[in-house]
């Protein structure tokens, strides 16, 4: 039986590993960190994923995720509009969800290597050789589910890596009085901050900012006080919330450039194949959906001697493009509406006066429920 190596244990990697092992395909998954851990993410998952997660018995019901049905948008100067969400979503922390999925993966037989960063991958004679700082491994299929940016992208000289990205991400968990069914997106100069609830009465407070804001102000705290607080909704949240962990989780170099779903014969999934702007709240749904599509193709390849690697790569690329390329384009266009006083006012005004248009745009950045 062919063996599969999965590099990166976020949602796309963990879910791919579980689906493959349930089809009796041996899987080794490499995750550079040790579960459980926090990561920068708004932790709002579109409900389009629920039928699929339930079909795998992997909807995290036992955590009682927040059920989110309304969307509030505020502009830099504090105008606000609230819309119902057609599809809605649920809120669960990645700390809990990824760790829970990792335990499920181990239980079904995935060989999970934690604290194992893959720093080299080589393809020769139809086999991959992967190296971590401890050991080398070989496999017939390699999945790149290592997120938005990795050392491996630099080593493969992927085209998106050559352009620097100006965005940084910051994430907290807080206790405050945020309505359980509401996700809010508050604009500030050259950025936006989302807030929505997760499990255990906590709210996720997460923002994306241009790195120049940080350069100008000198520190995260100064950035928040001098720039975010100009939006009165944000000032109110930051002043009144109880912060559960400080300092926050932070990341930089968040890129929304196009990528290729297959690179050097490695099948990419989730953010490694293409990252949608966080304001769409759809990256995790895409990571989950891409695990479904990818697993189907790998199962077919592993179980049918007559299927060539070339067919595997081209059919996966085709289906990936059909499913996600349009959504990524809408996300990039929407990103331009946010972050300046003028355009964020315009976006709130448009949403206030043309609610069906705003709901149409939201639906265009999302997929349909899948199972
Ligand atoms: C600020 C911000 C807010 C967001 N908010 C939302 C939201 O509210 N809703 C939503 O749906 N999406 C949101 N997203 C997007 C979402 O977080 C991602 O789309 C999603 O996490 C992608 O999942 P993934 O499995 O592809 O990668 P990840 O979840 O990033 O997992 C990748 C894993 O690979 C590991 N790794 C990396 N390199 C290596 C290596 N060389 N070897 C081994 N392991 C490695 C990493 O440690 C990590 O655990 C947000 C993103 C940002 C930046």
Description:
- The protein has 371 residues and is of the alpha/beta class.
- The chain has one domain: FAD/NAD(P)-binding domain.
- The protein has helices at 11-21, 50-55, 94-108, 151-156, 211-217, 220-226, 232-240, 283-303, 309-335, 341-353, 355-364; strands spanning 4-7, 27-30, 44-46, 66-74, 80-91, 111-113, 120-124, 127-131, 136-139, 141-144, 167-175, 182-188, 191-197, 203-210, 242-243, 249-254, 262-263, 266-268.
- The radius of gyration is 20 Å and the shape is globular.
- The model has no long low-confidence stretch (mean pLDDT 94).
- The site of flavin-adenine dinucleotide has 39 residues, from helix 1, strand 3, helix 4, strand 14 and helix 8.
SSE blueprint and pairings:
Blueprint: E1 4-7, H1 11-21, E2 27-30, E3 44-46, H2 50-55, E4 66-74, E5 80-91, H3 94-108, E6 111-113, E7 120-124, E8 127-131, E9 136-139, E10 141-144, H4 151-156, E11 167-175, E12 182-188, E13 191-197, E14 203-210, H5 211-217, H6 220-226, H7 232-240, E15 242-243, E16 249-254, E17 262-263, E18 266-268, H8 283-303, H9 309-335, H10 341-353, H11 355-364
Parallel strand pairs: 1-2, 1-10, 2-6, 4-12, 10-18
Antiparallel strand pairs: 3-5, 4-5, 7-8, 8-9, 11-14, 11-15, 11-16, 12-13, 13-14, 17-18
Bound molecules: flavin-adenine dinucleotide.
The site of flavin-adenine dinucleotide has 39 residues, from helix 1, strand 3, helix 4, strand 14 and helix 8.
């Amino acid at each position: 039986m062919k063996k599969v190596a999965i590099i990166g244990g976020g949602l796309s990697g963990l879910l791919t590993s579980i689906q493959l092992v349930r089809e009796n395909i041996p899987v080794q998954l490499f995750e550079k960190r040790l579960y459980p851990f926090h990561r920068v993410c708004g932790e709002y998952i579109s409900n389009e994923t629920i039928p699929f997660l339930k079909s795998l018995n992997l909807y995290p019901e036992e955590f009682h995720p927040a059920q989110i049905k309304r969307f509030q948008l505020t502009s830099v100067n504090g105008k606000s509009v609230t819309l119902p969400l057609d599809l809605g979503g649920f809120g669960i922390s990645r700390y809990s969800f990824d760790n829970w999925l990792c335990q499920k993966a181990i239980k079904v037989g995935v060989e999970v290597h934690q604290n194992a960063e893959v720093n080299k991958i080589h393809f020769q004679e139809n086999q991959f050789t992967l190296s971590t700082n401890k050991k080398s491994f070989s496999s017939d299929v390699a999945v790149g589910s290592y997120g938005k940016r990795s050392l491996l992208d630099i080593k493969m000289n992927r085209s998106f890596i050559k352009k620097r990205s100006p965005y940084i991400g910051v994430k907290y968990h807080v206790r405050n009085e945020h309505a359980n069914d509401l996700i809010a997106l508050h604009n500030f100069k050259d950025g936006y901050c989302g807030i929505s609830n997760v499990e255990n009465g906590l709210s996720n407070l997460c923002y994306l900012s241009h790195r120049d804001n940080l350069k100008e102000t000198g520190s995260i705290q100064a950035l928040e006080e001098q720039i975010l607080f100009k939006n009165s909704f944000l000032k109110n949240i930051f002043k009144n919330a109880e912060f559960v962990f400080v300092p926050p989780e932070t990341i930089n170099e968040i890129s929304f450039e196009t990528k290729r779903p297959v690179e050097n014969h490695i099948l990419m999934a989730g953010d490694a194949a293409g990252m949608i702007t966080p304001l769409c709240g759809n990256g995790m749904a895409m990571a989950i959906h891409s695990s479904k599509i990818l697993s189907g193709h790998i199962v077919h390849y592993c179980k049918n001697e007559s299927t060539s690697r070339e067919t595997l790569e081209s059919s996966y690329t085709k289906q990936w493009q059909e499913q996600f390329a349009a959504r990524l384009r809408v996300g990039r266009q929407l990103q331009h509406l946010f972050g300046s006083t003028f355009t964020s006012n315009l976006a709130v005004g448009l949403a206030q006066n043309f609610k069906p248009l705003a709901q149409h745009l939201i639906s265009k950045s999302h997929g349909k429920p899948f199972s």
